[in-house]
Predict the 3D structure of the following.
Amino acid sequence: MTNQQERPLLIRGGHVIDPAANTDAKMDVLLRDGRVAEIAPSGTIVAKYAEVFDATGLTVAPGLIDIHVHLRQPGQEYKETIATGTAAAAAGGFTSVCCMPNTVPVNDNPEINAWIQAPERGAIVNVFPIAAATVGSMGVRLTDFAALKNSGAVGFTDDGKPILHDDIMRASFQAATKLGVPVIQHAEDTRLTGGCSMNLGPTSFRLGLRGMSIEAESGIVERDIRLARETGGHLHVAHLSTKKALDTVRRAKQDGVHVTCEVTPHHFTLIDEYVGEYDTNFKMNPPLRGTADRDAMLEGLLEGSIDAVATDHAPHALHEKQQEFDRAPMGITGLETALAITLQVLHHHRKVPLKQIIELLSSNPAKLVGLKGRGTLSPGAHADVTIFDPNKKWKFETQDSRSKSKNTPFDGWDFTGAVTATIVSGKVVYHRDRANR
Amino acid sequence: MRSSKSKQRGRKQKPAPSIPTGSLLAIESFSPEEISSLLKQSAAMQSQLEKSPASRRQLTNTLAGRRVALLFYEASTRTRVSFEFAAKNLGAVTTVVHAAASSIEKGESLVDTGYTIEATGAEAIVMRHPSSGAAQLMAHYLKVPVINAGDGMHEHPTQALLDAYTMLRHKKSLRGLRVLIVGDIFHSRVARSNAQLLSKMGAHVTLCGPNELLPELAATLAPGIELQRDIDAALKTADVIMMLRVQKERLSGLNLNIEDYIRDYQLTQDRMRNAKPDAIVMHPGPMIRGMEITAEVADGPQSVIVEQVANGVPVRMAVLARALGARK
Ligand SMILES: [Zn+2]
């Protein structure tokens, strides 16, 4: 993906926010040979042959990183491909994505892992696989963590099929700890959620749908924290959705356990009531919760006990979502709306400074999965940059989506805050004004 | 941030704008006026049925030649037969489509089955389906009215209408009426529809059962619903006692002992001594004698269970006439 032959790119006049370097000022950034060559006060960089990107009035940030996406390839190309998924990522300002292993077949061996990262897949942003923790994600036998890490995996998980057995989870921690990578858990006690299609609450009762309890999430988080403490492993809790689980994570952090967590834009924005009359675009796992849990997610983001925002981008074809609610698959797309929602809800409504937003979407995720030289614009770092206008008003319409699937609850939503350009390895892979929509 | 379109979502009491006129999907989205009007229509249907053979014949002009498809994804005797007779009493032509005997088994989607039935000329679809929300899904995509004959654990609106109709034949008004519903509330679409309807019409609804079958959440179903674990206490003030079937096939995962259930909740002669002498006993069926109710009570003087079944026909006639836009 590096373009050694490309002209250098000078991003001029923008407001650079790089939390990792403690930068929050009007600066120019010079990108050369796929790296950040120089960053200096505006107007001071001399680069005769550089192409100039005028970022006046815009925010220049280290490229956003989504550590939880489903790209569906190999095996479910009718939902999404690595090419279409990364195109959606670029449009959403993401320069790197970490893809979950629940493909067909499951990404549980170095061959599939390498295949996903091959240039033939046509990715336009960086793709870092998270490999399966157990063979076939069946929860029985561990995969070869070392071989998978050597072939590019940055973490291990059986996302969607949580590891329930203590001994397997313990062994996962032990293997991952040796390699310095996290074990990522989709915290759901599936023994308690059979047949459930939404959150347990007044709405599920009213609609006659079986509901997932808060305890089905928090119970697994509590168990995993105990094992992380015991093994010294790094537990990363995927798409946290309940106050009870968040409280557990917060306490464990205070106790010095190596635990981190992410939350999705929909879990800090929407509530279960919005399922309304069985709208399957509001069906995902974990499900949308009640107001108290939604508000707790916001609090957690504000106070910093939640480490990252991740989308859980989960494309599904129209014919799959156009089914009876209990039969429709769980999941919604999210790459193209994540930054906008985060800016809208956290920055504009809750007055969270942009620096903190960029920590949640770039520098923290980079640290979480150990992406060296990303999540920052320090000289020498990868030339991955996201340029956005925090005040630009726009409307998201699914018909314009680059994702192959259109299963989002945010169709027709108005936002303040939009991506202007996405730059990967020094090359503009998305520009709002040049986007053919 | 939400667009005007999105703002509609999650709002209760309001069907989506694309639902075909004449559909009956859930009591929850019905107004008290609409309920009253359907109950009045039902009474009119019944009196015309009973007045004379001539008036009965005259009824067949109401929907003469109109086509009604009955789409059943779940076995049902009384509801299907009742809808069929109701349609025929009004002169309509009916076709019954059973899931087992159609392309449904081959994996055709619900919406595609709906399109097919609509394309063959059906003017209304009555449907029963094991998934909650199935009728809503169908109505969302079709142009013809959809009548929900039971969707999963969600609603069974015509059952609630015929239950209310039956209550009104024995009691002056639904307003202030004390209705006790006993049994497996959690799995029951009948309970949900009845609770919605009775709450809207100003009745006092008490739900009774063990925690496994009646979670605390049930109180959030509609305004003014009370929960009571003790059937003997609840029986004392009830004007209407509605017993629900214990859905034995669903009990396997629950911590519920059948003997305990029978001891604590079965409606027996003995228990009926606590009840008001003018209280009526109802059951939407299918009924398991010796389980939730004894034969003595089911066949006893206070039981109106057989009458409920009969009342299904005029009520469903009113619903079909409304769906197909018949005059009067
Ligand atoms: Zn997950």
